[in-house]
Give the backbone structure.
Amino acid sequence: MSILDTIQQTAAGVVAKLRPDAPPDRLIGRKHGSIGTSLPRIDGPRKVRGEARFAAEVPAAGLTYAALLHSTIARGRIATLDTAAAAQAPGVVLIMTHENAPRLKPPAAFMSDPRAAGASDLPVMQDATIHWNGEPVAVVLAETQEQADHAKSLIVATYEAEPARLSFAQAATRSRQPESVLGEPAIIRIGDAEAALAGAAFQVDLTFHTPRHSHAAIEPHAATVWWEGDRLVIHDATQMLHQTRWTLAGIFGITEEKIRIHSPFVGGGFGGKGLWSHQILAIAASKLAGRPVRMALSREGVFRVAGGRTTTTQRVALGANADGTLAALIHTGTVAMTTHNNCPEQFTFPARHLYAAGSFLLEQRVADMDMLANTFMRAPGESIGTFALETALDELAEAMRLDPIELRRRLEPEQDPTSGHAFSSRHMLAAFEAGAERFGWSQRNPVPRGRREGEWLIGMGVAAATYPYYRMLGGAARVTITRDGYARVATAGHEMGMGTATVQAQAGADRLGLPVEHVTFEYGDTALPAGTVAGGSSQTVSIAAAVAAASAKLIAELLTLAGNDSPLAGLSAGEVEARDGGLGHPEQADRFESYVSILTRAGREEVSAEADAPQPVETQRYSMHSYGAQFCEVRVSAVTGEVRVSRFLGSFDTGRILNPRMAASQFRGGIIMGLGLALMEETEFDERSGRIMNPSLAEYHVPVHLDVPDIEVIWTDIADPHAPLGAHGIGEIGITGVGAAVANAIHNATGRRVRDLPITLDKLL
Ligand code: MOS
């Protein structure tokens, strides 16, 4: 059972009128319509023209600008905080510290409640205690950003430091087993894997290390906030609108109805755009100052205040029989975490579902450290778990003198290997085969260091990609048809650049039988029906399920309105389909009436229906995952150890592809982020001070144009009959498997195995 099932079940208590199962989705497999076409981004023109207002760009009368002072110790207390000089600086409006901050309740941390959005449950600026190096200790509000930044530099803080847990190796010696990993058991044991490993014909037993990663979305975190009496208005960059509203209501002791959050445009989320201390501090400071506040984190501020991916050590041990089947699959390890969050980076999840094996030992442990709370970051767990698992599989294939794709053929399970559930839709081998064909895998020289051009050693590698299918409960949608034959589809969804608005307009158009130009998709506002978290690659199907439910209700209402004088008379909602701008019998062309006609005859300007999505029972019945195969070619300099990725191809099996243009962009973006994971990204955490030492994009390296080759992406486009629209999520799978594909290619090129990310040139010399 996943956290999402847990959330779904807990939420079942608070979401009214759940239906037991989703009705069959008529849009699956439909050949005509907007879904499946490459409609360009509908939010694109506004972004290109600069008309799309992001959270840090929203104007407000009397706006003040905030700057944060960050602690320089990891644990202890503020001893003195001298703000006198800062208070005298030009333009200063307010200095807020723990001494004058309003009294606030601690945030409800993510996972503690299905409605919670807090990245941690630490109280925010309520006393002198310091919990991590970088924790905000003062907020300065001024008339301009420059004045706020300058005044902040005049504050003198001294600290009484206490011993802190800053060494991951030491913390790991006192690791503990978490109660659960995202709602699933922290340990899975099937058979005696250690004994099976010891007795296996072929064995690999390897240790991997992956570093911390920091979120580096193009838009730094920001919020513009103000109070209107006892009502709170927030323009935030978030991927969890309603969860943020519920959590803020608890912190500030007001009802949710008094809070409105807008977030129509988000410049990249990747799991990091949740509720951190900066929004809470902005709201508190705005209350104290009685003026609107803009809290736009500096790039350094993002590194100090918003956590990212945690560090891990992982062991993967594989024991294979002579026929190439697995006798034992062991994947265990430890992640760094804090006691004030609950994000244990589910690196064992891929091994739970990918391959058949005679025995399993999958265990996750956590090591408590004094640091910024880690959080979700594009395929948390799966991205780094597949690095370890898929590198180990490559090493096993080499030991067995088997082609790595052939090894995967022999490991293909008939059902989910740990849950025993049937797969809803799994065509991973088809993705491998299509990818191999397209990439020219047969050209690969299986002998490492077997291909050289001048100083460049050339190699090819492959790895599986995988990410679960999730659908969140708690989403609702409203669908409105207007008398002119147009429609509005509304839900508090999130557009973080992935194409949500575009694809949902397409889905709404097909659902209602309208041209896509006649459909408006409204999102990004808590005043709309509740959306779900844009996380877990779940948003597309979560919204689609709510829109399907609302549309079904709307169609029933339209039939009632149409009445007995309509060609539709006598037909029930289940007997009609939406097409050609109206409703009709699927086979009888003359039994049709347009929306314009129905509403005109009824004298109505518009008709609306709102509904909650049905309970996502599909994940309790089936093992539902996205799959893929990542193919990489690298050139490694024999002189400098420099790695250049020269070709990359991702071949995916993620259900039906709703918009090829948006999908390609998601896959490619995930792969590019995976190249960063493989070769450059690393948050340097000083284990003496707990300080992040490279809090800038000059020193925290992400791939730039010159690092990224042409990336080809292809897909099976096979609809999952158990998912709304037949679709699986595609936001995260692109990054999975990339680390291993690159590492395996580097091994093929150089004969060197690097099991420690990122694979920088020093590790290849
Ligand atoms: Mo994703 S890491 O669930 O935004």
Q: What stands out?
A: The longest helix spans residues 539-562. Residues 239, 269-271, 376-378, 380, 535-536, 732 surround dioxothiomolybdenum(VI) ion (CB under 6 Å).
